[in-house]
Amino acid sequence: MSIYDYEIKTIRGEEQSLAPYKGKVMLIVNTATGCGFAPQFKGLQKLHDAYKDQGFAVLGFPCSQFANQEKESNDEIAQACELNFGVNFPLHAKINVNGSEAHPLFKHLTNEARGVLGSKSIKWNFTKFLVDREGNVVKRFGSTDEPEKIEGHIRKLLES
Which residues form the active site (predicted)? Predict the structure, then answer.
């Protein structure tokens, strides 16, 4: 199954696939507005703004599996992201990223790009997956990897 075949819900509840992102470089991130890493939203938005016209997109997937650090409703999440962090990159409905209830997209991502010591599970909020223009998951970045540190990897994929 191609990454573009996965069905996702927007933050507004609309069903869609990742097909509109075919041919683009994507940075897919599990987010949480109440997390200590939430200031990364600003860096993610900066990357999105800098490279969106070159075929790049940040995709945020709110998750509450780590210390319940995400708001209850998708409307509250969207509002907090916009008001507190100026986010206008695509946000999606709140999902699970680990366990039997993990969204199929994240099962795919964690299978394709493993974490420390080959682990599949995501350890915390703001784990990032870099996907090339062909839909290949090329690299996984941890929560402590600041968006600015990923910029070189993004530029490289955009230039190839």
Answer: 35
**How many other β-carbons are positioned within 10 Å of the β-carbon of residue 11?**
20
Percent of the chain as helix, strand, coil, to the nearest 5: 35, 20, 40
Q: Which of 32, 92, 105, 36 is nearest to 65 (CA)?
A: 32
**DSSP annotation string for 9-63:** EBTTS-EEESGGGTTSEEEEEEE-TTSTTTTHHHHHHHHHHHHGGGTEEEEEEEB
| Cα Rg of the chain, angstroms | 14
- Count CB-CB contacts under 10 A for residue 86: 12
Segment 85-109 shows an average pLDDT of: 94
Is 63 designated active site?
no
pLDDT greater than 80 at residue 125: yes
One-letter amino acid for residue 29 of the chain? V
- 3, 18, 28, 35: the catalytic one is 35
Superfamily of domain 3-159: Glutaredoxin (3.40.30.10)
| Residue 141 to residue 127: CA distance in whole angstroms | 6
Can you give the residue ranges of every domain in the chain? 3-159
